[in-house]
Amino acid sequence: MEEFHEGCRKAEDILHVLRDRVAQLPGTRDRKGRPVIVFPARESSSPINPDHIRNILLYLHAVTAGKYKFEVQMISVDGLMRYIDPAQLTRDLGGTLFYDHDDGAATTNPDLAAALPHLAALVESLRSSKEDLFIQWETRRQKLDHCYQLKLFEQDAEKMFEWVRVHFALLAQRFLEIGDSEQSTSLLIADQREFANNASVCNYGKVQIESVAMRLEEEWRRFKHALEQRTRLLDQALSFHRKSHLAVGEGRSLTQLLKALGGDVIGQNNSYKHVVDVIQQITRAHKEMHAQWQERKIRLHSRLALIAFETDTQRVLQWLEQHGDAYLNKNTAIG
């Protein structure tokens, strides 16, 4: 089995051996329908390499998938007629079968040649399907990740709701207790203050959560506003380019038409002068519109840079408010 795996597996690996006429494959079959391989005798000065014969047999054994078995029999040329019909033997072996070795080695299998475009189309379809599958998988993964984050948030929110419900129930149980004397009412007030203090202490991070929520809402509002501005700017730019191309195209058409008419008389014609004036007005309007568009673009870029600077400044100030004193206390060497 090891020798079988080490043998040739591709036709191109034994093509040079066939071209050297080490073996011939004329398509001959014996009287029992078994295929025949011909190994022509060589002169003593150029003996056949046994590895070439071995590679050919291994290849033929591989392509037949073990369906056929090989048997070696020593038969003289004169005795071939007993096993093989003369019509199946080549002329050099005394038969009548026409066989061109060079043409047979160079000719490809017509079935394989016809199937190659279909196989190429299948491979391309498989590659396209793989890319589509990967895109769908990535989209699905992102959706699942978003769902997972949402579920985590819902779990945290549910814990917060549960905490509020429990403490609200405790408060509702004692809501109408006002005491029957000044002393009992004072005790109830003290208990109420302690309960409110405990509720505020247990509600960890309430201020931070509200601050983060406000920051998130503000950042989202700015981001959405920037998206709307960007979309509006692109729509205006697209409309400008379309109208400018249309105006330039019409101006060129008019110019070519007027040039085709030719003659000095046309230059004195009022219509021609009017057309020239209109073209100049369109050109000036085009330049003014382009200048306004450039100015608007620069202004928007400056505004976006200002927004980014304000955001960074706000983050620095917030960090200083939250961690500045602690940092200075740790690093006393800082003036």
TrEMBL record:
Keyword tags: Guanine-nucleotide releasing factor
InterPro entries for this protein: RhoGEF_Guanine_NuclExch_SF (IPR051336)
Gene3D superfamilies per record: 1.20.58.60
A GO molecular function held by the record: guanyl-nucleotide exchange factor activity
Gene Ontology biological process terms from the UniProt entry: axon guidance
An annotated GO cellular component: cytoplasm
UniProt key word Zinc-finger: no
Name of this chain's protein: Uncharacterized protein
Species per Swiss-Prot/TrEMBL record: Parascaris equorum
